[in-house]
Design brief:
Elements lengths: L5 H9 L1 H11 L4 H7 L4 H13 L3 E4 L3 E4 L11 E9 L2 E8 L4 E6 L2
Antiparallel strand pairs: 1-2, 3-4, 4-5
Helix pairs in contact: 1-2, 2-4
Length: 110
C-alpha cells in the first residue's frame, strides 16, 4: 500500500477496536497475541483484520497469518500520528491524531 486516504485514516481512528487491531497488525503481532492480550474474540479480531486486508493495509494470509504491507503518508499529504504510554506491559493510554484534525483516545489493554 502506498497511501492511506483521508477516509481510511478517519475510519481507523473512529473505531477504537479497529484502531487497536490495526496498530497490533502493523506492529507484527499474531492473531493469537492480539486475542490473548486484549478482550477480543477471534471473530472480532478476524473481522478487523479482514477490513484491513480489503483496504490493503495488511495481507491476511492462510492460517490467519498477518503480513503488514508497506505504508506511507496519505495521498494528500495526510498522516496519522499516535502517541501512547504503556503503564504496564499490557496496558497503556494515549491519543491518535489524523492530520485532518480527527482525534481518538487510545486505551490499550484492560
Amino acid at each position: 500500500m502506498a497511501h492511506l486516504t483521508v477516509e481510511q485514516e478517519e475510519e481507523i481512528v473512529s473505531d477504537p477496536t479497529f484502531l487497536l487491531v490495526a496498530l497490533c497488525a502493523v506492529g507484527n503481532w499474531t492473531v493469537e497475541q492480539i486475542t490473548e492480550t486484549y478482550d477480543l474474540t477471534l471473530a472480532e479480531c478476524i473481522e478487523c483484520l479482514t477490513r484491513l486486508d480489503r483496504r490493503r493495509i495488511i495481507e491476511l494470509q492462510p492460517g490467519n497469518r498477518i503480513r503488514p504491507l508497506p505504508s506511507a503518508y496519505g495521498s494528500r499529504g495526510t498522516y496519522m500520528n499516535c502517541e501512547y504510554r504503556m503503564t504496564t506491559p499490557y496496558q497503556g493510554t494515549g491519543t491518535c491524531k489524523v492530520s485532518t484534525g480527527a482525534m481518538n483516545q487510545v486505551h490499550i489493554g484492560g
